[in-house]
Amino acid sequence: MRPAGARAARTPGGGMRGGAVAALVAVLLALLGTAPAQAAGYRYWSFWQGSGGQWAYATQGPGTARPGDGDVIGFRFAVSADSSDAAKPRSAAGFGAVCDSTPAKDGAKRVAVVLDFGTPADAPGGETPPAARSACAQVGEDATAGEALAAVAKPLRYDSSALLCAIAGYPRAGCGEQVSGQKKGAESATPKPAAGSGDEGDGVPSAGLIGGVAAVVVLGAAAFWQARRRRG
Fold it and tell me: Nearest CA to 66 among 168, 7, 145, 165?
C-alpha cells in the first residue's frame, strides 16, 4: 500500500518529462493563439475631410463637423475593419474643380462634396454602386457637414443612433452591418502581412503553421505516453 502523498512522488526524470509535456502544450497554445481569426469588417459610409489636397479621416461625425467656406468633404462606401483600414474616396480632394462654377454669396459658404459609392465587391447583395460624383453645396455659414451633404445628395438615411446609413438612397437597406470574411474592393485592399508571419491572407493559417501545430501535437502525445509507460 502506498503511503499518503505517494501520488506526488516522481521517478527519476519524471519531472523533466512532465515539464517537457507542459512546455509542448504551452507552445501548442501559443501557436493556436497566433492563428488569425476569419477576417471581418463593417459595410458603411466613412467620412473624410480634404487637407492640403489629400484625404484625412474625419475626427468628428458629419452631424457635428462644420466645414468652412472653401473646404472639401468626402464620403466613401466600403467594407472596412476600422478607421485605420477605411478606404478613401478615389476622387481628388480639390475644391476648385467642384465649386469654381458656383459664385460666392453673402451669408453662405461653399463646400465641395465628393461622393464615392465604392466598388461592386463592397456592395450589398443585389445592389450596384452608382458612379462617383461631386457637387458644390452652398449652405448657411453655420451648416454642418451633414447639412451640406443633405443639400446635394438626398435622400439620406440614418439609423436610431444617428449613424449615416445611405447617401442618395444607396444602399437601399442595411446600416454598418458586420461582414464576415471581409471582402475588399481592388481600390481598398489592406497591406499584405509580412512573409513568414503565419498568415497568407484571407484569414487562413499558413501550411507551415498547421504543420507546426500537428508536429507539436504528435510530440506532446508521444512524450505523455512514454512518461506513463515508464511510471507504470
Answer: 145
pTM metric for this prediction: 0.64
CA 108, distance to chain mean position in Å, is 37
CA atoms within 13 A on the CB side of 123: 15
DSSP state of 199: B
pLDDT in tens, the chain (232 residues): 444 433 333 334 444 455 555 554 555 445 445 444 445 799 999 999 999 999 999 999 999 999 999 999 999 999 998 888 899 999 999 999 999 999 999 999 999 999 999 999 999 999 999 999 999 999 999 999 999 999 999 999 999 999 999 999 999 999 999 997 644 444 433 332 323 323 333 333 334 433 444 444 444 455 444 555 555 5
Nearest to residue 95, comparing CAs of 42, 54, 155, 149? 54
DSSP H or E stretch at residue 112? strand 108-116
Q: Are 55 and 74 in contact (CB under 8 A)?
A: yes
Question: Concatenated DSSP letters for 5-48?
Answer: TGGG---TTHHHHHHHHHHHHHHHHHHHHHSPPPPEEEEEEEEE
CA distance 9 to 14: 9
Q: What is the DSSP letter of 122?
A: G
